[in-house]
Structure formats: C-alpha cells, structure tokens
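Thread title: Can someone regenerate the structure for this chain?

I was given the following input by a collaborator and told the matching structure tokens would be attached. They weren't. Posting the sequence so someone can regenerate them.
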Amino acid sequence: MRKKLFRKKDIGAMLREAGATGELKRSLSVTNLVTLGIGAIVGTGIFVITGSAAASYAGPALTVSFLLSAVGCILTAFCYAEFAAMIPLSGSVYSYGYTTMGELLAWFIGWDLILEYLFSCSTVAVGWSGYMLSLLESIGIHIPKHIAGATFIYSDETGWALSGSIVNFPALFIVALVTAFLFGGIRQSAIINNVIVVVKVAVILLFIGFGLWHIDSANWTPYIPENTGEFGKFGWSGILRGAGVIFFAYLGFDALATAAQESRNPRRDMPKGILISLTVCAALYVAVTAVLTGIVSYKELNVSAPLALAVDRIPNLSWLSPLIKLGAIAGLSSVILVMMLGQTRIYYAISKDGLLPPFLSRIHPKYRTPHKATIFAGAATCLIAGIFPINVLGELVSIGTLMAFVIVCISVVVLRRTRPELHRPFKTPFVPFVPILGALVCLAQMLSLPWGTWARLIGWMILGFVIYFAYGIKRSKLN
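Best answer:
Regenerated them for you:
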C-alpha cells in the first residue's frame, strides 16, 4: 500500500507522452501568456480591496503593503517559472507534485487546486453580478431581487438561512458565457481575453492619468497613520496586516502554469509570462493606490467601489464613473475566464492519470479542447455561484491558493536535491533561500486566517481523500 501511495511519475515519460499525443493545441504566444496573467490578476483586488484595506489597516502606506505582498508573490513566481519551463504540462502544481512527492500528495494538491479555481471562479462571478446590477440600476434597468442574489446567506452569529432569492442569475449568466467561449478553443478565448485586458487596463490608466492632476498631498499626511494600540490597526503592523489582506489581489498568476501545454514555446515563454504579468500588475496596484489615497482621505474609502468614489470627487469628470464600472466588469470577466481555463485543465490532467473519471480528459475533435471538462466545470461553478454568498466563497480561495504556493516552493527544493541532473531552462535564483522564504511567507499568511476557514478546508480535503481511496487509487494509470 505504501508503495502505491507514494509512486511517482517519470518526468521524461510525462514529457514524451505530452509531445507524442499533441492533444492540446499549442497556440499561445508570450503576449497571450502575459495578457492571460494580467487578465487573471487585475480584478477584485484593484477595484474593491484597495479601499477597505487603506481605510481599515494601512492608510496611504497601503502602497508599501502592495510592494511587500508583491515580493512574497514574486518569490513563489520564481518557483512556478522553474517548474513551468521544466515540466510544461497542463496540470500545474499537480503535475509537479506527482514527479516529486508521489501520487497521494499529487492528488492532495490537485484536489486543493480544484478548490482554488472552482471557488475563485464562483466568488468572482458573484462579484461580477454585483457590479453588473449596479450598472444596470444606474441606467434604469431593475432586475427582480428573487433572481439577483444567493439562495443562502451565512453569518457567524446566526449560521445558515434562506435569503428569499431563488438564484443569482447574473452570476449564472457570466459563467455560462465564459464556458461557451472556452468550449470554442484556447486561441479564441485568448483573443477575447486580450480585448478585455486592453479595456480594463485603459480604464485604470485613465483613472491614474486624470487622478494625478487632482491629488491633494494633505491626504497623504500622515503617510503611515499612528497605530491605534491594536496590532494591525495602522502603523507598521497595519502595513503588514494590509499586505496579508490584499494578497488576494495578486492571486491568478499561478493559473498561467495550467496553460503550459498550450504554449508555443513553454520553456522560454512561461517564465516570461508569469514574471512580466506579475510585475506589471504590481506597478498598476501601487500607482492606483497612490492616486486613490491622494484624491480621497483613506478614512472615507471603506466602500465597495472606491475608484468610482474617487472619480465622483473630481469636478467635471462624472463621465468616467460608468467607465470605471465597465472596467471593473471587464476585469472580473477576464478573471473568470482564466480561472475557468485553469479549472478545466486541472480536471483534464488528473483524469488523464486515471484519478478522476475518463470523460474529463476527452478532447473535442474540432476545437482540441477538453470540452467535457469545460462543461463540467461550468456546471459546477454555476451551481456554487448561484446559491452561495460571496463571504463564504471568498474565505476558501486564499487558503487554498496559499497552500498550493507553499507546496510549489518546497517542491523546488526537493527536486533540486533528488534530481539535480534534470534540464532546467529557467532556474529559481538563490536556492534554497528563495523557495524557503517564499514558503514561510505564504505559511505565515495561512496561519493568520480564522479557524472557520481552516475547518472548511479540512472538510474539503476529507472529501478528497474519500474520493481517492474509493476511486482513484484503484484506477490510477500507475497501477
């Protein structure tokens, strides 16, 4: 039994199989990869989290929080880039774990990735619904409440209850639309994502450009507000707490690794795509935060649409407010697109190894996409996004992603020791210091999350182990 649980896949055999079958179409250029990365990262964080984090934790010094959080992500990104160039397969961390730690831990990682992508898609779809409803309301279109909200609501005080709504229809609509685009092929999806990225980055640059002329430097004083006496409430501890909170804003660059098998030249282009997209987004975040806190006092920014609030404060610029909402909708749409892409490729990779049913790895003869995995992912995301509230969904996203980051960092160190002879087109610098530091940063943020989030993660993992021992271990292709 022990041999079965820790059997490993041979890297050379995996690469030969992927190259010989050529099932997935290699059509992504380095430009496509960079825009996919930006599409996945720039979304909820820049349009929502910046305001509440500045108001509650760091004040104008949230710019420092974004830089600190970016450093933690870049440490992990180096590790992702090494694996993505060395093992350019669609399974991302799951495939890396299968070669370094064995089948049981690979399944554990894969199940964790399903949690990350499934719940992040659902979370962002619910956020998209909120922005769309707000935009429709502003132009006089009213959606009935019974089809515009989650079926259930949850609070720590009262627990679960019915909301009075049947389903969140706008969330279902955007998930179904994205599923249809992904069904039609990776190239078509990449082109659509490119257009969306151009739109939302243009809106962000408009905000920065116009906002620079209306900054009141008095709003930046004090730059680091005095601590209230409680850890995490302003001061340097507030900057650290802010870095942990806005870490969510950088999630998504890891989804690029799931598209490695569809990249034209993954050994060269994957590291570029991961590192360039993360750097661009960090620069945008810092610039937006600086302008935002310069236009409006950080004390007033604890609102759901902080950029729209700032625009409303600028004279003769009311025309930009609906564009900000459109930019937010576009931003959230591209996040859903890339996260859905990642989700379907994880199903595909695990199914190819026999640990999930074989229909999930079937390829469409015309579009050369895992079409049944795409339909399954769309249906699962619709179900969760339609009936569950955003506060419950969002809790699970960060902890699942942070766990994946820790595993990637550790895997780099393990594989450097056990397989030093492997060809590595891109190498993480200063091993083992960079991956160990990256793992510690992510682990520290996991430990800061509340017990309720850990309880849900443990429940999800128990369900995963039941599926593995009831189905996967018997049908694994390594049998």
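The chain has one domain: 2-137+166-475.
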